[in-house]
Each structure stands twice: as structure tokens, then as C-alpha cells.
Amino acid sequence: xxxxxxxxxxxxxxxxxxxxxxxxxxxxxxxxxxxxxxxxxxxxxxxxxxxxxxxxxxxxxxxxxxxxxxxxxxxxxxxxxxxxxxxxxxxxxxxxxxxxxxxxxxxxxxxxxxxxxxxxxxxxxxxxxxxxxxxxxxxxxxxxxxxxxxxxxxxxxxxxxxxxxxxxxxxxxxxxxxxxxxxxxxxxxxxxxxxxxxxxxxxxxxxxxxxxxxxxxxxxxxxxxxxxxxxxxxxxxxxxxxxxxxxxxxxxxxxxxxxxxxxxxxxxxxxxxxxxxxxxxxxxxxxxxxxxxxxxxxxxxxxxxxxxxxxxxxxxxxxxxxxxxxxxxxxxxxxxxxxxxxxx
Length: 344
Hints:
single chain, six-stranded mixed beta sheet, five-stranded antiparallel beta sheet, 18% strand, elongated, disordered N terminus
């Protein structure tokens, strides 16, 4: 009861402005208010050093960058000749699913994609997983369109690159019949940006692909890097990708159809391992060896060996194998379709 009375007394002693005033949103300020605020801060704020002309300019730039989100950033100048690359990989999972890790966008990897699609056709594989989690961010949209054309019916509008300040639009369409027509699943993660987001969005709209993973970055734009006096760069979005009959990807990102949350550092580590050791071992469960005729002949006992291995572990338990949860969900989806809708 005493605490309640003290709180009531404290509230009563507060000045009227503290009880009645509520912070106003910046977006509600009129042009006249905006003109007046900075001079008032410089003249009256309690700490002059925090409201100097330089600090106010820094605060203005900081606030502007925050409001523009992924459309603006200040960067260190890139190292000459340095560019991010990522390897292509493909394999067949469980003799029924074609897995393709696209890697970097470019002519070489598109040729490798064609080879993987030809293999899928020769083996009558009815399902394909296109993994974009290792595709570096970028705005090579002509090359991204080439990837989309492998899966999209002829004559469809893929996307439009719009530069509103110069009233310019570049429409990219599919030109040929698709090289693959089966069940298509696309994988994305939190780092998927630019090309990967555009490909995933187009294939969902035009090829009925299911997108699995996490919310993407929201950078389906073309950037211009503008030099600043002391060597830094101001990166600004100057063109936006617009998709027909689809919600914009910039700046909110692409929402997956099936969300599977995985820490980005775990995804990065797993992708490195899959590139080195293959993908299947991180998708399918392997049954523990059991006592059988071969073990009897060899004079071994797999059950005892498993117990001994667990005892060597400090926890007394066998360590859970590393699994690719996102790719597992893709395989589960394809398997379910195969059960209820025919062979995949």
C-alpha cells in the first residue's frame, strides 16, 4: 500500500507538461516545424557540443540513412579487383530430386545449370531444388533473367528494371520454352539479396515455385556508388526491380512460403561443408549399424562400438549429426507431393 501511495504522490507532483505531453511522430511535422527545429536545438539544448553544426549534420545523415533502409549506405572504398564469387554444385538426391546450388550469377554457372537440367531430363527427374543461399548479392539482372528463362514459359514478362529519375524502363521477358517443367523449390536465407531475391520472386510468380527459408534482405535494386571527398562511397539505390502481379521486394524483402529459421552463421558453415562433402549426407538420416551376419564374421559388434563411442564423449551422449533443415523441408515437401500427387 505504501508503494502505491508513493507512486500516486510522485505522479501528482509531476509537472502538467510531463503528464499530458506525448511524443509526436516526425512524419507529422509540418515544413514550418522542420525549418524551426534545428535552429531551436542549436540555441537552447543543454549541451552545445552535441548540437553543433557538425553534429546536427551527422545526425541528419544518420537519420536519413536509417529511413532509406537498404536503399542507402556509406561504404569503404572496395579493393581494386576484389569481387565475391561462389561455386556451382549439383547432384541427384535419393535418385529422384535434382539439387542445384547456383552460386555466382554469370555465364559459366548458367552453362553448368543447363548441364544439370539436361541431366534431370535424361533421368526423368520430376523435381528440382534451386538453392540460392550461396548466391552473392548483386544486380546483374540480365544474367538473373537468363536463370529465370530456364524455368518460365515462353512470352512471360519476368520483371522490369525501372529508373524513375530518368524515366527509363527495361522489360525482361522469357524467350524460349522452359528447360524444366516439374516441381520446383527455391531456397533463400537472410543474406539473399538482389539477384537471388529477383530469381526467387520471379520463379514463384511465373513457375509456381515454392520458396523455403528466411526473409530476404530487400535489395532488389540497382545501386550506384558515389564517391565522397575523403575516399568513402555513398551507395544509393537508383533503379528498382518490379515484378508483375507481385508485391515489391524492395525494401521489405521476400517472404518465403515456408519459413524455416536458421542462424545465418550456421547456414554459412553448412554451405561450406556441403560444397566440400556433398549435400545428401546433410539431408537424409543414416541408420545406425546393427549386429548382422557380416559383423559376426568380422568379429565386431556395432551396438557395443556405439556405446563405447558415446562413453568417449564428455556428455556421455552421441553428438547429433549436422542437418540442413531448410533443404530437408524442401525434400519433405517434394516427397509429400509424390505420395499424394504422383511420382516426383
